[in-house]
Each structure stands twice: as C-alpha cells, then as structure tokens.
Write a structure and sequence with these properties.
The protein is α+β, with helices and mostly antiparallel strands. It has a domain of 68 residues: Immunoglobulin-like (Sandwich). The chain is 18% helix and 44% strand. The chain has 1 helix and 7 strands. The strands form 2 sheets. It has a 4-stranded antiparallel beta sheet, with no helix packed on it. It has a 3-stranded antiparallel beta sheet with strand order 3-4-5, with no helix packed on it. The longest helix is centred in the N-terminal third of the chain and has 25 residues.
C-alpha cells in the first residue's frame, strides 16, 4: 500500500508559517528593541515580577504599574572620549529595552515596591482583595 501524499499547495503552509513567525520576531525586535526576560510568580496575596536588566543602572530604569500590567523600560546612553597626543577616539553607545507584562491577577499599583540588585529588577505587587460575584435583581 502506498502512502498518500498531501497536495503540493498544502506543503508550503508550514514553510510560510515559519517565515511569518521569523518576520514577526524581527519586526518586533526592530521597533520595540530586544525583549526583557521576566519571571512572574503568584504568591497568594502578591505577585512578584523579576526582570533581567544586566548593564543598566537603577537610574536608567522606569517601571509603570496598572492594576493588570507592568511596563518595564530601560535606556542607556554613554559617550567616551580619549585624546592622547595625535590619537583621538570618541565612542557613543545607545541601547534601550522595553517589556509589557500582563499580570495573572489584579494588583494595587499604589502599594507596589521595586528594588534593583545585581542586574535583576524585582517588583512586588499586592493583589487587590478579591471581588465576589453578586447576583443582580432584574427590575
């Protein structure tokens, strides 16, 4: 018995899908910068978000929190000039990263805390007390 082959037009979908995913990844990185790797941990009454930001100083990092998401941005600008006799060197560098994280539970942004140590940003966010479902009377 011979194995039935998929139509030729069907075989191209897998390749097209891989190309689409790669283009999407490249466009995202080009316009949004490289992604910040994060860990999100649900610890019962609080949510912990950890982000790896090696090479950045805490003054270069911005954290914005809403009840359902966290936005982490970091931007580094530096300039180095060396002049010695007839030798002259000037280097400039710029780098930025950004990450938007959806949270698993609603949090209270006003009571959140953040600390930065050894290239790791840790954000601790207390959850909002759970809202119970209620039955509405139809009038």
């Amino acid at each position: 018995m011979t194995k039935k082959r998929a139509p030729l037009w069907f075989e191209g979908f897998d390749t097209i899908s891989r190309i689409h995913e790669e283009i999407h990844r490249l466009m995202k990185e080009a316009f949004l910068g490289p992604a910040v790797p994060v860990d999100i941990e649900d610890r019962g009454k609080k949510v912990i978000v950890r982000a790896d930001l090696p090479g950045f100083a805490k003054e270069e990092i911005t954290v914005r929190v809403s009840p359902s998401r966290v936005v982490i941005e970091a931007e580094k600008k530096s300039r180095k000039s060396v002049k010695k006799d007839s030798f002259y060197l000037s280097e400039r560098s710029y780098g930025s990263v950004r990450r938007v994280v959806s949270l698993p539970s609603e949090v209270d942004p006003e009571k959140g805390t953040a600390r930065f140590e050894n290239g790791v940003l840790e954000i601790e966010l207390p959850k909002v007390s759970s809202r119970k479902e209620r039955k509405l009377k139809i009038g």
